[in-house]
Write a structure and sequence with these properties.
Blueprint (H helix, E strand, L loop, with lengths): L1 H6 L3 H8 L13 E8 L11 H18 L2 E7 L3 E8 L4 H20 L12 E5 L2 H12 L1 H4 L13 E2 L6 E6 L14 E6 L9 H25 L7 H6 L19 E2 L3 H26 L6 E2 L5 H6 L2 E2 L7
Parallel strand pairs: 4-8, 9-10
Antiparallel strand pairs: 1-3, 1-4, 2-3, 2-5, 6-7
Helix pairs in contact: 2-9, 3-4, 5-7
Length: 322
C-alpha cells in the first residue's frame, strides 16, 4: 500500500486510496478488464465443489454474462470465495455482479436447504487490470489458488470450477439445474458459456498465450514449493469433495487494510489510472452536492452507475460516445 500512496501525488488520489473500505461510488466504464472477488458469509464453505454447486455456478455465470455482455477470461471458485477475470464491454459490471450473486445465492440456498446470507456483507471487490501483463499475473494467481491453499497440487486436480483460457477459447454448454431453476420460464433449459482469450492491448495473441502458460506454471510451482517447504500436505480432491458446506475456514486471517482498486506494473500507467479514479470521485461529490441541493440537471461524471440507474441522473458521455 505504501507504494500506491507514493504514486498518488494529489490529495484527492491519496484520499481515494485511504478510504477504499468506505462505500465510495464505483466508476463503471466500458472496455475495462478486471478481477472480481467475493467471499462467502463468515468464510463458510457454501461454494464447496460438488456436481450440483459447480453446475449452479457455471449456469449462473453464463446467464449473467449473456445478459450483460461481459467477456469471461478466467474463473476459479474456491469453497468460500470466488475470482473472475473478465472484460466489461458495455459498462455493465454492477449489473453482471448483481445477476450472478443473486442467482447463485438463491439457487444454492434452495439446493442446500438454507435461507440466510450466502455472500459476505461486503460488496464485491473489483480490481482494474491496467495492462496485458497485469491480466496475465491475475489469471496465473487464480489458477494457483487451490495449490496455494494446500488443497490440490495443480489446477487440473481442483474439483471445483476452474476456467482458464485455451487457444482461441472454448464454449461450455450448461444444462439448467433443478430445484430453484426448475420449471422456470425465465431461465432457458441450457446456456452457453464462452471462455475467451484475454483482449490484447500491448501484446499479440501468440505472445499472450506463451506468457500466460509460463506464468501459470511458475505460479503453481511456487505455490506447491511453499506448501511443501512449510511442512504441509495437500488435502486432495476426495477430502475437498467430502467437506461440509457448513464448515468454515479455520486459518488465521489478519485484519485487512485498504484494498487497491487498480493493479498496474507500469508506474506511469498506474499514476494515470489513479488520477482518473481521483478525478471521478471529486466530480461525483460535486455533482452529488448539487443534486442534493435540488439541481436535477447537474451532470455526473462518465462512469456513474447507481445515480443514473436508480434516480435517472444525467451522466456525461465518455470518449468516443455521442
Amino acid at each position: 500500500m505504501r507504494k500506491y500512496l507514493k504514486l498518488a501525488t494529489s490529495p484527492s488520489a491519496r484520499w481515494l486510496l485511504l478510504t477504499m473500505r468506505v462505500a465510495i461510488p464505483r466508476s463503471i466504464r466500458p472496455l475495462v478488464t478486471c478481477m472480481l472477488t467475493r467471499r462467502c458469509y463468515q468464510r463458510t464453505f457454501r461454494l464447496r465443489p460438488s456436481a450440483e454447486s459447480n453446475q449452479i455456478f457455471l449456469y449462473s455465470l453464463a446467464w449473467a454474462a449473456a445478459k450483460t455482455g461481459v467477456l469471461i477470461h478466467a474463473a476459479c471458485v474456491m469453497s468460500n470465495h470466488r475470482h473472475i477475470v473478465l472484460t466489461d464491454v458495455r459498462g455493465a459490471l454492477s449489473d453482471f455482479a448483481r445477476e450472478l450473486h443473486r442467482t447463485v445465492a438463491k439457487a444454492l440456498n434452495a439446493a442446500q436447504g438454507q435461507w440466510e446470507n450466502l455472500w459476505s456483507a461486503e460488496q464485491y471487490h473489483s480490481l482494474e487490470l491496467g495492462s496485458d501483463e497485469d491480466v496475465i499475473d491475475k489469471i496465473a494467481y487464480i489458477a494457483s489458488n487451490p495449490t496455494e491453499a494446500g488443497l490440490v497440487e495443480s489446477p487440473e486436480e481442483w474439483p471445483g470450477v476452474m476456467l482458464l483460457p485455451e487457444g482461441e477459447g472454448k464454449t461450455l454448454e450448461i444444462q439448467r439445474p433443478g430445484k430453484y431453476f426448475a420449471n422456470s420460464s425465465v431461465f432457458p433449459e441450457k446456456v452457453m458459456l464462452r471462455v475467451v482469450p484475454m483482449m490484447g492491448r500491448q501484446l499479440s495473441r501468440e505472445a499472450i498465450s506463451r506468457r500466460l502458460g509460463a506464468a501459470i506454471k511458475r505460479a503453481v510451482a511456487r505455490a506447491r514449493e511453499a506448501v511443501i517447504a512449510a511442512g504441509g500436505r495437500f488435502l486432495g480432491r476426495q477430502v475437498v469433495l467430502g467437506q461440509s458446506f457448513q464448515k468454515r475456514a479455520e486459518s488465521y486471517e489478519p485484519k485487512r487494510g485498504p484494498i487497491p482498486q487498480v493493479r498496474a506494473r507500469n508506474r506511469t500507467l498506474l499514476k494515470a489510472i489513479l488520477a482518473r479514479y481521483a478525478e471521478f470521485q471529486v466530480r461525483y461529490r460535486e455533482a452529488l452536492d448539487a443534486w442534493r441541493g435540488g439541481d436535477r440537471g447537474v451532470v455526473f461524471p462518465f462512469g456513474t452507475w447507481a445515480m443514473r440507474l436508480v434516480h435517472g441522473a444525467v451522466v456525461a458521455q465518455g470518449p468516443g460516445y455521442g
